Amino acid sequence: MTNPVIEAIKNRRSCRSFEPKPIPRDIINTIIEAGNRAPSQGRLEKGKKDPLFQPWRFVVVEDPEFKQKLVKTTLPIWKKSTEQTKEMLPEWYEKAMRLYEVMDEPKDMVYYSAPVILFVIGPADYAVSCALACQNIMIAASSLGLGSCYVGFGSLVKGDADIVQTLELTDDERIYGPIVLGYPKDIPEAHAMLSKKDEPKIKWI
Question: Which residues is 49 bridged to in the sheet?
């Protein structure tokens, strides 16, 4: 049994290699709208429940200069963390290094030189709601022929005051993702980081 939604979910992969071409704004807006339609927990305001509360907001990064600032801030963190996996997770480390070796200059192992970096930002106590928005975004991107990847290292930017100011981050906000988006570049080495999904564990009662 299948339909276009199921196919988009099945075909979604974490993409780490992108064509250097921009994504039209109407496609980006469509993807963001899909994220904005995600379910969310309501909030109490003046003693009343607001079931339509949407805790997230979105920042779309396309500017090359700002992207380089993001890379400069996060790449050293990635390098240090990856080096620590050399002994504990040698297979994962080898895959990461293979991808790093074939990557074009300037090497970007955090945002993968994606045309778009999409920050999903929201309060720390709405993590589940914001994660649902991220999932909608990645499925929508897959359905439109785009690759995406949820890059946790990309959220580690609060140490740079200029980035914090540009993203307008407040103390009570958290970055979910961010999610990189672009047209996939099909090179075999880029698939080295893919993980095979196991069959679901199900108990029927």
Answer: 44
12-58 pLDDT, tens digit each: 888 988 999 999 999 999 999 999 999 988 766 656 666 667 899 99
Token look-up 């080495």 returns: 189
Contacts of 195 (CB under 8 A, 6+ apart): none
Query: Could you tell me which CATH number the domain at 18-40+53-193 has?
Result: 3.40.109.10
The pTM for the full model equals 0.87
